[in-house]
């Protein structure tokens, strides 16, 4: 079974703090994603990485940065947390869609980190 | 940019009955992929079913099936013989042919009642 783990289920931080959210996958997937989930808005992509040290901005990258130093690990960084970043953060991974003859683009999700910024 | 709309924020169904969740999307592309994901309470999101736009046949996975209407840009999910374990948030998602990224709808919260 694919396993995607996130470092914390619940996190409480103060405005202005630097926050690190960690995600690890054990299936050697090329792609990793960070989303935030808010009621009524569904999931919105923050950043996407398709390889080590490679990243692409998603729909809402402002206020966030990412790091992918190893294939299995993808970190989301809030440089200076603000209250409007209070949300559920979901990490996901997938094999590159061109791997092999079968498109295996299913995204596998972690359990989520509920971040509260006070 | 693609958009995905789920017009039903919440739905409920009696156990053993059938329920249909709606999803519409907007794209100018002719080939793409559509997905339904399920997020049970306090549990991880998992893929329920996927559909390739170039396939006319509707995808089916056990009790889950889709009604894909390409011209209408509609992709509804039908759950037959609903079970209590089907209680979850359901998200419709779109991926274009060239990319790896998904665009999600706002979600539908489904409650299955005993």
Molecular structure report:
Chain A has strands spanning 4-6, 10-13, 19-25, 31-38, 42-51, 54-57, 65-70, 73-78, 87-94, 108-109, 113-117. Chain A is mainly beta. In chain A, strands 2, 4, 5, 6, 9, 10 and 11 form a seven-stranded mixed beta sheet that branches. The N and C termini of chain A lie far apart (37 Å). The mean pLDDT of chain A is 91. Chain B has 114 residues and is mainly beta. Chain B has strands at 3-5, 10-14, 19-21, 24-26, 32-39, 46-52, 60-61, 64-69, 74-79, 88-96, 103-104, 108-113. The radius of gyration of chain B is 14 Å and the shape is globular. Chain A binds chain B through residues 4, 31, 33, 35, 40-45, 48, 50, 58, 90, 92, 94, 96-97, 103, 105-107, 109-112, and chain B through 4, 6, 9, 33, 37, 43-47, 50, 91, 95, 100-107.
pLDDT average of chain B, as an integer?
93
Order of helices and strands of chain A: EEEEEEEEEEE
**How many whole angstroms does the radius of gyration of chain A measure?**
14 Å
Radius of gyration of chain B: 14 Å
The main sheet of chain B comes to: 6 strands, mixed
Q: Mind describing the biggest β-sheet of chain A?
A: 7 strands, mixed
Largest interface: A-B, 26 and 21 residues
Shape of chain B: globular
Give the CA-CA distance, first to last residue of chain B: 41 Å
* Strand proportion of chain A: over 45%
For the terminal residues of chain A, how far apart are their CA atoms?
A: 37 Å
Oligomeric composition of the shown chains: heterodimer
Helical fraction of chain B equals under 10%
- Encode the helix/strand succession of chain B as letters: EEEEEEEEEEEE
What overall geometry of chain A do the principal axes of the alpha carbons give? Answer: globular
Number of helices of chain B: 0
Strand content of chain B: over 45%
Note the total helix count of chain A.
Answer: 0
The strand count of chain A comes to: 11
Unreliable stretches of chain B (pLDDT < 50, length at least 5) are: none
């Amino acid at each position: 079974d694919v396993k995607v783990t996130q470092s914390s289920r619940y996190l409480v931080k103060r405005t202005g703090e630097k926050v690190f959210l960690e995600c690890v996958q054990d299936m050697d997937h090329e792609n990793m994603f960070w989303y935030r989930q808010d009621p009524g808005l569904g999931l919105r992509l923050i950043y996407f990485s398709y390889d080590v040290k490679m990243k692409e901005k998603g729909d809402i990258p402002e206020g966030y940065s990412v790091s992918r130093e190893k294939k299995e690990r993808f970190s989301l960084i809030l440089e200076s947390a603000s209250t409007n970043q209070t949300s559920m953060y979901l990490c996901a991974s997938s094999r590159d869609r061109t791997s092999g003859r079968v498109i295996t683009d299913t995204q596998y999700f972690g359990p989520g980190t509920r971040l509260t910024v006070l | 940019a693609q958009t995905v709309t789920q017009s039903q924020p919440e739905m409920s169904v009696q156990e053993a009955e059938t329920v249909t969740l709606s999803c519409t999307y907007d794209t100018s592309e002719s080939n793409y992929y559509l997905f339904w994901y399920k997020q049970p309470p306090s549990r991880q999101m998992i893929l329920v079913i996927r559909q390739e736009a170039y396939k006319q046949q509707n995808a089916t996975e056990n009790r889950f099936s889709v009604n894909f209407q390409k011209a209408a840009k509609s992709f509804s999910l039908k759950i037959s013989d609903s079970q209590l374990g089907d209680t979850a948030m359901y998200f419709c998602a779109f991926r274009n042919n060239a990319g790896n990224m998904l665009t999600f709808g706002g979600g539908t919260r489904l409650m299955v009642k005993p």
